[in-house]
Design goal:
Blueprint lengths: L5 E5 L4 H9 L3 E6 L4 H6 L2 E4 L10 H12 L7 E3 L7 H8 L9 H8 L1 H11 L6 E2 L9 E5 L9 E2 L9 E5 L4 E11 L1 E12 L9 E6 L8 H14 L2 E12 L2 E8 L6 H4 L6 H9 L13 E8 L4 E3 L9 E2 L6 E3 L4 E9 L2 H23 L1
Parallel strand pairs: 1-2, 1-4, 2-3
Antiparallel strand pairs: 5-8, 6-7, 6-8, 9-10, 9-12, 10-11, 11-14, 12-13, 14-18, 15-17, 16-18
Helix pairs in contact: 4-5, 6-7
């Protein structure tokens, strides 16, 4: 037994939660779909679930794995990341066994129901794109989205996409994509900062998530309006723990697309050894917020390196230091799969983004040379 507290954690990829837990002096008992080597290094115990990504967790397999991880450890609760947005009933089943450390399942259900969230925005006076369940008469300016989808891969043009029970339509909003990360303690929150996001489109997934860079230096255009929008939403729907709000900046002000109330991809951007994000998250679960957020003190670009062709990872392959989510070699990747996460730090947003792009290109060159 360890003298350190422990938490159960699960997500499509749980490495970021486990690394933040280690910085916070907490033992992570973590599982995800990949079982990468750096998850195993960061967690006290870890498991990999096979065969269900990207369709989602198998409830019985997930709970059985959590019980194995928790055996003899007395975890203080369960922290979740991406993969539960459309599964509030699974969070309820987990919550019957361990305390949910974060936004509760009932609130997640309201947050991720398209009509409920649209009504919430209207009541709060926050701009939100028009939505609907029926195919619009002019679908050219609309998107089709999976209810509770994550990562952007589920988003496609509405044209040619018939209605489905698990999907809805949202009108396209043109403008710059900016996200605001925060830690919530009910109706109150501490803002972590802003990130600029980008996509890496493919033929099948035109809105596939690419990465994010931040924290953006002040002043951020329309920043106060974005903060006011989050504050207005929290007044009507209190949240708990790490969260982020995705906006599009238009000439008429910010338009809120969605709020994700869980640990997300930008943990790599905002993580700080001086103020670990999981420590902030657990404090928020107790109703405590920091007087000030110190942040990482540098600008980071963090995102996915997607494969453009089939790749074989040979035995003994040494991942560069700038990579995260490292598959243990030997392994094979099909075209269109995420190869790893790449992180780049610099003094400015432009320099961090440029370094990120060079590092992704460097990875591709390494594998092209091996394939030649």
């Amino acid at each position: 037994m360890s003298d350190r507290p422990s938490v159960l954690a699960a997500a499509f990829s749980a490495r970021q939660i486990a690394e933040s837990a280690r910085l916070a002096g907490v033992d992570a008992l973590a599982l995800d779909f990949f079982g990468d080597s750096d998850l195993a290094a960061a967690a006290r115990r870890s498991e990999v679930l096979h065969g269900h990504y990207p369709d989602g967790f198998d409830a019985d397999a997930l709970i059985a794995a959590l019980e194995r991880l928790a055996d003899g450890m007395a975890p203080i609760g369960f922290v979740y990341g991406a993969g539960f947005e459309d599964r509030p009933e699974l969070l309820e089943a987990i919550g019957a066994r361990w305390p949910i450390l974060g936004t509760d399942p009932a609130t997640q259900r309201r947050l991720k129901d398209p009509e409920t969230f649209a009504a919430l925005c209207a009541e709060a006076g926050v701009a939100h794109p028009p939505i609907g369940r029926d195919l619009p008469a002019d679908p050219a300016n609309w998107l089709s989205k999976k209810i509770g989808g994550a990562g952007g891969s589920h988003v496609v043009a509405a044209t040619g996409q018939p209605p489905a029970p698990d999907r809805y339509y949202q009108r396209v909003v043109a403008g710059e994509r900016i996200s605001l990360a925060f830690v919530a303690a009910g109706t109150r929150c501490a803002f972590l900062g802003f990130t600029r996001q980008w996509t890496v489109p493919s033929a099948a997934e035109p809105y596939r998530y690419g990465g994010a860079v931040g924290p953006l230096p002040d002043p951020v255009p329309q920043g106060p309006a974005m903060q006011a929008a989050v504050t207005a939403i929290l007044a009507l729907l209190p949240l708990v723990g790490m969260a982020s709000a995705d906006f599009v900046l238009t000439a008429n002000g910010p338009v809120l697309l969605e709020i994700n109330a869980r640990a997300g991809a930008t943990l790599d951007v905002f993580e700080s050894a001086a103020q670990p994000l999981l420590a902030l998250h657990l404090a928020a679960c107790r109703g405590e917020l920091p007087e000030r957020v110190s942040g990482p003190g540098i600008i980071r670009a963090a995102g996915l390196a997607w494969t453009e062709s089939d790749i074989d990872l040979p035995a003994g392959f040494a991942w560069p230091d700038f990579t995260r989510d490292r598959t243990t070699p030997p392994a094979s990747f099909a075209a269109g799969q995420p190869l790893c996460t790449v992180v780049a730090e610099a003094e400015t947003e432009e320099a961090a983004t440029a370094l990120f792009e060079r590092r992704v290109a460097d990875l591709r060159e390494r594998f092209e040379r091996k394939a030649a």
